Amino acid sequence: MNYHILKYISKAQICVAAVLAATAAMLIANTFFGPIFYTNSTASAPRGIYLAVPGQLSYGDYAIVASPVSIPDIHIQQGDLLLKKAAAFPDDTYEMTANRLAVNGRVYPVYHLPYLPTQPAGSYTVPEGTILFVNDPVISLDSRYFGPIPQANIKKKVMLLINYDAIRVYF
């Protein structure tokens, strides 16, 4: 290799080349595999950049899901992509009351606002072909309001790559 050329290449040029190569790789991956990075800036799940990963969902995994309904008052359209945490799978049971959802030993509050869908009180089993998604924050729009979400609405399993809140403490 002609190493004397390397002494004329600056660190800035190397950085620009690396950024261009990474951008090209992401565009190629996006073309063949669809989006592989997703961002979340809402308080309903950890804020940050998520990476699409292969594999089946397990309890506690995050997924990108398409909203099963429209909620015009908060500008959610059916099919909008949401970041949700898997809480229950087919044949798991859960209980809805007027003010809470209980599933797998966890209890989540339910708020009654005029524009939010509601689920009737009762004990339920997650049906085949659906998953119950519930995020930890109490302000999340999830299965507390939608009920189980069809597996056809699941777009990608994702994992948190860069946590905005964790790096914020350094700046």
Structure at a glance:
With 171 residues, the protein is α+β, with helices and mostly antiparallel strands. It has helices spanning 11-33, 143-146, 164-168; strands at 37-40, 48-53, 62-66, 81-88, 93-96, 100-103, 106-109, 122-125, 130-133, 149-150, 154-163.
Written overview of the protein:
- By secondary structure, the protein is α+β, with helices and mostly antiparallel strands.
- The chain is built from three helices and eleven strands, in the order H-E-E-E-E-E-E-E-E-E-H-E-E-H.
- A hairpin with a 2-residue loop joins strand 6 and strand 7.
- The longest helix has 23 residues, at 11-33.
- It is elongated and about 70 Å long.
- The model has no long low-confidence stretch (mean pLDDT 88).
Radius of gyration: 21 Å
Q: Tally of extended strands?
A: 11
The class by helix and strand makeup works out as alpha+beta
| Residues in helix, % | 10-25%
By DSSP (H or I, 4+ residues per run), the number of helices equals: 3
Shape: elongated
Please summarize the sheet with the most strands: 7 strands, antiparallel
Average pLDDT confidence is 88
What proportion of the residues form beta strands (DSSP E)?
25-35%
Oligomer: single chain
- Terminal-residue CA separation: 42 Å
Strand order of the largest sheet: 1-2-11-3-4-9-10
